[in-house]
Fold this sequence. Notes:
Layout (H helix, E strand, L loop, with lengths): L1 E5 L4 H12 L3 E9 L13 H11 L3 E5 L5 H15 L4 E3 L6 H13 L3 E3 L7 H10 L3 E8 L13 H9 L11 E7 L9 E9 L2 E8 L2
Parallel strand pairs: 1-2, 1-4, 2-3, 4-5
Antiparallel strand pairs: 6-7, 6-9, 8-9
Amino acid sequence: MNFLCSWSGGKDSCYAFYQAIKLGYKPAVLLNVMNEFGDRSRSHGIPKNILQAQSEALGLPIHFFSSTWTDYEVKYIKNLQALTKSYPVSHAVFGDIDIESHRAWEEKVSAAAQLEALLPLWQGNRRALVLEMIEAGIEAMIVSCNQALGPDYLGRTITADLVEELENKGIDACGENGEFHTLVVNAPFFKNKVEVENVEKTVSSNYNFAVLQLKG
Length: 216
C-alpha cells in the first residue's frame, strides 16, 4: 500500500496525493520530470529548488530525471523501475481527472514497472474538485497559462471567486485542458509554507510563465 506520487508541484497531483492517503495508502517518494536542462519541471516550468522545498515541506524524498518529450516514455518507465528497487512501493499515484488517453498512458508505464496506477480524482467533477481542494486548505497559485488567460493571471491564488471568474471566461475550472498550471505553496499536511515570489514573466511557445524564486 506504499505509493510513489507523480508530482508536478501543482494542485491536482497534490490533491491526488492527499486523497490517496485518505484511502489508506502511504507515500514513499515523489517523482518529477525535469526539462532536458534539468533546471525546471517539464510540464509546469517550476524551478528544481522550489520542488525540493515542497518535498521538504512534505517530509518526503523527491526523485528527478531530465527528459525531452521525445524520450519521455522510455525514461519514465526506466525511472519507475529504478524507484521500485529503492522504495517498497506497489502503486503510482497520478492526478488526472477524466482524460482517457492520459489514464491509458499512466496504466501502461506503471504496469511496465509492476506498479498499479492509482487515480484518486478520476471521474470527479472538475469544478467540485477544485472547490474541494480550496476547502481542504490547499493553497495554489497560477504559474503558467495560455494566451486565452494572459500574463496578468500569473501569480494569482486559486480561490472560489477565481474559479467563477475563469468559468465566466470559458476556461475550465481545473485547467485540465492545459489552460493553466499551478504551484502549491501550502497545505494542511505541509510542515511549512513554501514562500515564493514571482520576479518576472516570460512567454515561450505562446504560453506565459512566471519566473519564480524562493524567498529568503
